[in-house]
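<instruction>
Derive structure tokens from the sequence

<record> Sequence and structure tokens follow
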Amino acid sequence: MASISYYERASKIVEPAGVEYSISKSKDDPGFIYVPSINLCVAEVATLPKGNWFDTQNEFHSKDQKMPTILEFVEFLKYTKEYFPDVYNGIIGVRSPPRAELLDANFKVEEKNLIINYNVFDENRKIVKKSEVIDENTLMENRTSELIPPLEARGGGISLEDWLNKSYTKQGLPTKKIKAGYLSYSCPKEELDTVFEKEDSTIARFFTDPNGFILDCNGSPFFRAPYFFYARATKQRE
């Protein structure tokens, strides 16, 4: 299938009745979708970062942008599933070649507490760091989906639909009461499986591959994987 430009895609989208959204139609802009529930614009297309997770954060911040938090990613998936299914299916429906979207969530143990660090825009439109103890309702055990049955019939993991609809904490992580399903989940850990000697934290990323999906909260922030990791810019509305 021949590809079309961001400008051409945006110009062909028809606004659903009663729904407020905004897509940049500038030819030199990658295209952003306005998500009302979070009052943020999220890039229609994820890009290949040039470095590791920290490098990607710094590059986005230099442009007054950031990666989406887990909660913002949930809201983006919910919104695009309903109003922009081509964008949603580009994340969920295309699983080959394998890829992973980096998310703005960094987990670290501080004074015996498991902390989640992420970034938000303040009232002055500046990016500021927030640090919180992991919500007590967070599911803190791994769930691995089966591989044999058809995707929708698998168990062992968590329900993607339940996660998007209601079973997430204020930080976007799955709750303890989430239903079973085909989304594998690797929870944040208090003991790190370090890959790099200087490593003292992990990050979140959303994997898709021919076997299914994984919400992984144990990624290395220093790891680089060209043509595998993607990052999606998030910014405030102009």
